[in-house]
Amino acid sequence: MEKEEVKKMGYTALEKMRVLNNERYDIDGSIIPEIAEKMSGNVEEQALKFIRTACENLNFKKFPKNEAYPEYLEDLDAPEGYSVKSKIIPYNMEKDVDRLCLENAIHRFMKSGVAVDAFDVYFCYLEMFVGNYKNSKKMIEMLAEFEQNASSLLMKHRDHYSHSVYVFLLGLAIYQNNSIFKDEYKKFYGLEDDKEAAHHYLRYWGMASLFHDIGYPFELPFEEVKSYFGKTEKNVPFVAYKGVDEYVKTGDKEKLRKLLGDEEISDDKLTINYMLAKNIADKLAGDYSDFKLYKKYEKENEGASYLDYLLNAVFGRKASDPDNFGGFMDHAYFSAVVLTHKLLEVMDENQLNPTYADTITAIAMHNSMYKYSVTNVGRDDDGNLKDEFNAAHHFKLESHPLAYMLMLCDELQCWDRTSYGQNSRSEYHPMWCDLKFDGNSIKATYVYDKDFEDRVKTGTYKKMTRNGDEKSKFLKDIEDIISINENGIELSIESEIAENTRETNLYLSDSNFLHLYNFAVSLNAMYDARDYKTHKWVDMSDEAMEASFENLSLEYKLSNIAQAKGFAKYLDAIGCFYTDRPVAYELKKDFTVEELRKIGLMEHDRWDDEKYAMGWKYGTKFVEAAKSLGIDKKIIREQTRTHNDLGVKFNQLSKTEQNKDTDPMNDMMKLIEKYDGLRVYKIPGRTTV
Amino acid sequence: VLRGEHNFMGYTKLNNIGTKREDYDEYGSGLRTHALRFIRETCENLRFADKKKDENYENCTGKSIKENQIPYNMEKDIDRLCLERALERFLKSGKKEDAFDVYFCYLDMFVGSYDKTRKMIDLLSEYEANGSRLLMKHRDHYSHTVYVFALGLAIYESNSIYRESYKKYYRKLQNKDDVSDSELACHFLKYWGFTSLFHDIGYAFELPFEQVASYFEVQNVERKDRPYVAYHGLDSYVAFGKEIQRKIRDIYHLGTDKIIRTSDELFAYSISRKLSGTYYFSEEEMLDYLHKKGTEPNKFSHYMDHAYFSATVLFKKMFGELHMDLNEEYVDALTAIILHNSLYKRSIAFYDDRNTNIPFNVDLHPLAYMLMLCDELQCWDRVSYGRSTKRELHPMGATFDLSNDCVKVIFFFDKKEEEKAKEFDEEYKKWKEDKRGKRPKFKEYSSIRIDKEELEKIQNEVDKISGFESEIRDIVDIKVRPKEDSNCIDYGILEAEKENRKNETSGKEADEENSKNEREKIELDVYYCWAEREKILKKSKRYLSESNFINLYNFAVVLNARWELGDNFKESDLLKEGKMKEFTAMFDKLSLEYKLSNINQAKGFAEYMDKIGCFYTDRPVEFDLVEKFEQDELEKIAKLEHRRWLQEHADMGWINNKEDLRKEFSEKAEQNMKAAGIYEAAEAEAREKIKYDWIKKDYSTEKDFEEKLKDEKNKEKYETEVKEKTLKPEMIKLRENSRIHWDMIFSDKAEDNNQKAEGITQADADAHYSSNEISDEDKEKDSKAMECMLTMLRVYDGVRIYRLKSKETES
Predict the structure, then answer these.
(1) Of chain B residues 113-152, which have a CB less than 8 A from chain A?
(2) Of B52, B147, B12, B46, nearest to B91 (Cα)?
(3) Tens digits of residue pLDDT in B64-90
(4) Is A5 in contact with A52 (CB distance < 8 Å)?
(5) Of B130, B610, B798, the CB nearest to A149
(6) What pTM does this model have?
(7) Does the distance separating the beta carbons of A581 and B543 come in below 8 Å?
(8) A-chain residues near B543 (CB < 8 A)
(9) Mean pLDDT over residues B207-234, rounded?
């Protein structure tokens, strides 16, 4: 297929609008950008291909055919879509722009791999599929926060925030290429149409992968106390949870019932634990009811079903009795419970269905629950299986495709994970990985940083080292968990050592995520309410600021976030940085005119790049067109996606427009202190401008 | 041998002009003066062994750079000087890196093994710096603890009421009336140190609980409605073996009808013995509270009490693992710790109920009294970690006047924050109009400041005090001086007063004068003042580089090994298992002074990096990576390290007061060795060693070596090296005994040496470094150690060093 065709095929509403704009205003705007060039590798390429081609028409509404407008576009005199304001572009055009946002967010993340770029992927997903980032932001921000802060106290711990985004992308790339998986997924959910299946997969796999580790804030306190005593001290106190029984009972019962497909069950029995146990028992009871722990439970509790076992002996005790689970607290259980609570809170009854329950149980099983409570995975020092039951019970794709994919990708994704734990920091882990697909075989090549070659006897590298023709421990571990290299899907693992050439764009300034969203909301409000001639702006309440932000499309929300993120880079360029540590460097209170000019230049460049990446073009015709129609010029500007400042040099912009680039940066200085207690300092010895 | 001629009170075994310090505080009667004077003068002869008092040069058992090098009691005096200097440094800077030294000194002096206890306190700092950012409310407890320690020492030193109560209590306990004041001061230092320095180590257990609570609270959900952390496995953890059970039997003279089997039971027994009469509760009730502390936080308003864990973990560590000798004083220290937070306030005194509350009297339990008082008072200069705490207004500094048996404190708030306070005052004013809703709070400002209008309305004179004072008065039995007006003091007036006081009698004489005023109760008087941050916090710099605190000790251990092993040290050893054990054993043989010196060398690295435009971090930032230092950078680092070394030695009283000192020491060493009949053997050994070194260096043979010696110059060089090597150990012993060092800046005037203790400038150090007085070998020591730090940071912390100025940014 020709590139042009791929482009048009991917974003049909955008293309239809382009044709229409030509006809109506003689404006040839809105080009559909190429799939990002300079891609990081095959995972990115395949994931983006999946989003662009397989997910065409994602989230579209069907509008009746109209003579004036092509299929899928509503009456343009009363559009329903959001852009810089609400209801100024066609609904499906907004959805195409949203999807393009996700594409770009993925490209940015794969380029840098840093957590602030992972943030954008989460943000896009939540806005596109859950409806509002604000409602669930705490859940994922807390994961990043907890890891950044608390996990350096542990002996072994690596990042789970960027990791989750990598897992998400791996899953997309595999789906795009692996027909065995794709067919089984379609069969499992009764999906015939490829496009419909891809949309379905993106929604549910997105949730399973992006949220599978959000329960870590509950595992970390447990591990902190464990690390406090170390391995040598015996009979020491450990963390257990109370109040979980009550917690799993709360929540809207009707909504919870929807997750079970409206199963008839009394409210007192209907708990989150029941939902988890029922969903899994329905899928696995047939294959796994000979497992010794269930048998033991059955013996002790006459007539107890497999569901009873999962409900009472597994989920009922996970949090309160970690001693019974090998002395581990399972974050996956908490991920599942917390996510269920969140879904019950933010989603309407009619949005919820049993597939969401599948995503939740995929999450619940992905860590130790499947490995040790459903079967018994593990080998002794000589490489022999600890339990023969495991030899015949590798997790089957057809049992639960989402769970299968999550277990596979979670195991595969071990590269580029910031090491937080005291031991993890000095181990050898891969910095990169790329997958090659050939039919239904996957070849994963892991790349290790040459700078740390002296660590080859540690970490993941050691696990990937093969002894002669034998498979590596890394691969054997995966084969012990899921059915692979035996069901048509072939997996092979390679490793190599190379120079690290990746740019992270990380600067001295280091903040947490909690307020990135708040910064964006404030920046938008200030943008809205400022007089750029006098630099003053009208004070707004938090609610008004939120409301103003809510009226933006995903594209504009992300733009505000990107502006807030750019602050660290701009500070670096003028020889400054921010921190909440009381360092004794020169405190920066205001920017000088020269500094603001430099910042303005960079901000304008960022804005240019962002617009081009989103397919915008330079153009001024929209002003005249709006004038002749007597409507707000922004309507035509947003529909044609043309802008009169695009590509214009900063110093050629009007003073008012220049102020739009510089004023927010003075605001940021105040915002970071207000929200994060951060202050800006000069970098010693660095010339400022 | 070579002793200084001046004789100062305090360090009777040092008698060295360099250790002299005049008043420490600008006010003469403040925290620093009293705390340091207590260590220096009141604790004279601390840890001395009588029998070893008269150890002589030839036969001594004290450690210095090696074992058995100086008299035993001299070592103890140096240890105490180390503690004094460490506390002095900390009170000047307030930095946690300096707090570390105080902990280190205390543990080395009174517990004996930092290595085995380090995790307990290092982890407190780590947990706070990392984990507590997740909480809603949390402030530093690591530096706080050292401030509490210092405050307690200062109050003991200055306050006759407290001192008398303590002395009476422990004379009675020891059943001896003739225990001297000096002995009791040393007693206080030991047990108060134990109480204060470890009272918050249990935060490591409160933090996980609070993290989970905050997880929900950030989402505006109340903690009581959500899952919470409860501890399991405590029963076996608190259980005693027979050895401890019997020890406790002996301490309390118990019969078989009362066997104490757990630390919970021990604490309940001890607390009820002291307090049940006054507060009316049974031992069983107390035991029930303690049982539930860790396992049922829901019974304690959904809070986990770190104090319970501080005492429990401390007991287990010190007496269960390290087998320290348990006595009643240690149990007192532990119960003081367990009481200091919510147990006393909410389960014993129920202090919220003013009708029934009985403030804690000092005679009931002097250590617990002191801990509660100091813990409440110490609210300044604490790093805010919690999300809400970061936005609160806490004092940045404090100044004390401890004369007249009164604790008068002025808290300093940052003038830059005054706007925030004014906003709060406005809000408060509005609230006062109709008093609707909750009384506004702006911690700690709102509790310290007194509202003038409200003050006028108060009928009862004794209640004309701030909320902060009132809270303390509810907890401990203390008299608070009522205020007639606002308790805000103008900084200008304070400065003027300071000038006036400089001309008045200050120091101990003034205190002795004041102490003649008899009072019944300890008094408290609190004020506040707005001041410029720069005028109050004269802190030394904090740098970009920040590494893991946990490895500071490891760095020090390796730096010492590097120094001791010289060319035999291999950086690859750092990766070898077992090597660290070997290095630690070498480190343990050093005196406290030398251990600290290694630690301070490791700490200096962040500053040196800053000075050469570099920094280290574990984040993969976009700066140029430093693979190795350039020659000019190494020289700069070496000079900086040399200044640090000179200052450290000047602070510890080292001097260089003789011209041609090396020659004098060399002659004396030769005389000593010949007199002892060990010279010849040492010389023969040195000859062989140097011969071997020469051969090894050139990859030559013994025959080549013989040939080489035929050259006169080579022969002369060889003989010089042999002599140096032969005499070196004896010269070092002479040096350590005299505390006169040939590498110090020379001056035979006492005033100059005292000035050095005030501060050696970098220019002085540079000039000294570049002169011929420092050998190339010694210069190399300074720079090589820093190269070694590069490897250690990489290996232990996973951090890398970057250059701030890259070529690209420069252009």
Answers:
(1) 119, 123, 126-127, 130-131, 133-134
(2) B147
(3) 998 999 999 999 999 999 999 999 999
(4) no
(5) B130
(6) 0.88
(7) no
(8) 583
(9) 85
Mean pLDDT of B508-518: 50
pLDDT at B4: 34
**Closest chain A residue to B235, measured at CA:** A237
- CA–CA separation, A319 and A325 (whole Å): 10
> What whole-number distance in Å separates Cα of residue B275 and Cα of residue B332?
12
How far are the Cα atoms of A234, B31, B414 from residue B493, in angstroms, in the given order? 60, 20, 17
Q: Using CA atoms, how far apart are residues B413 and B391, in angstroms rounded to an integer?
A: 14
What is the DSSP annotation of A129-147? IIS-HHHHHHHHHHHHHHH
Mean pLDDT of chain A: 87
d(CA B201, CA B334): 12
Band of residue A383 on the pLDDT scale cut at 50, 70, 90: confident
Q: Which of A35, A21, A53, A209 minimizes the C-alpha distance to A129?
A: A209
Chain A: closest CA distance from residue B510 (Å): 37
Cα B691 to Cα B707: distance, rounded to the nearest angstrom:
12
Provide the mean pLDDT of chain B: 85
Single-letter amino acid code for the residue at A354: P
Q: In degrees rounded to 5, what are phi and psi of residue A456?
A: -55, -20
- DSSP letters, A490-544, are EEEEEEEEE---------S----STTHHHHHHHHHHHHHHB-TTT--B----HHH
Q: Do B383 and A582 touch (CB under 8 A)?
A: yes
Are the C-beta atoms of residues B657 and B753 closer than 8 Å to each other?
Answer: yes
Chain B interface mutation, best of A111, A154, A156, A228, highest count of B Cβ atoms under 10 Å: A228
**DSSP structural state of residue A688:** -
Mutate to test the interface with B, among A428, A508, A588 (most CBs of B within 10 A): A508
Torsional sign, CA B717, B719, B724, B725:
positive
Residues 202-241, chain A, touching B (beta carbon < 8 A): 217-218, 220-222, 224-225, 228, 230, 235-241
DSSP B373-442: HHHHH--SS--B-STTGGGSB--SEEEEE-GGGEEEEEEEEEGGGHHHHHHHHHHHHHHHHH--SSPP--
pLDDT digits (tens, 9 = 90+) for A497-512: 998 877 766 667 665 5
User: A419: which DSSP letter?
Assistant: B
Calpha distance B466→B471 (Å, rounded): 9
Q: Average the pLDDT over each of A1-5, B562-566, B702-706, B759-763 and give the range with the smallest value.
A: A1-5
Task: Find which of A246, A333, A415, A583 to mutate to test the B interface (most B CBs within 10 Å of its CB).
Answer: A583
Q: Which residues, 6+ apart, have CB-to-CB distance to B697 below 8 Å? A: none
Rounded Cα distance between B626 and B605, Å, is: 14
DSSP structure class, residue B317? I
Count of beta carbons in the 10 Å neighbourhood of residue A532: 17
CB A274, CB A263: distance < 8 Å: no
Output helix, strand, coil percentages for chain A, rounded to the nearest 5. Answer: 55, 10, 35
* Separation CA A343–CA A356 (nearest Å): 9
In sign, the C-alpha dihedral spanning B246, B251, B256, B259 is negative
Distance spanning both ends of chain A, measured CA to CA: 49
Q: Which of residues 319-338 of A touch B (CB under 8 A)?
A: 319, 322-323
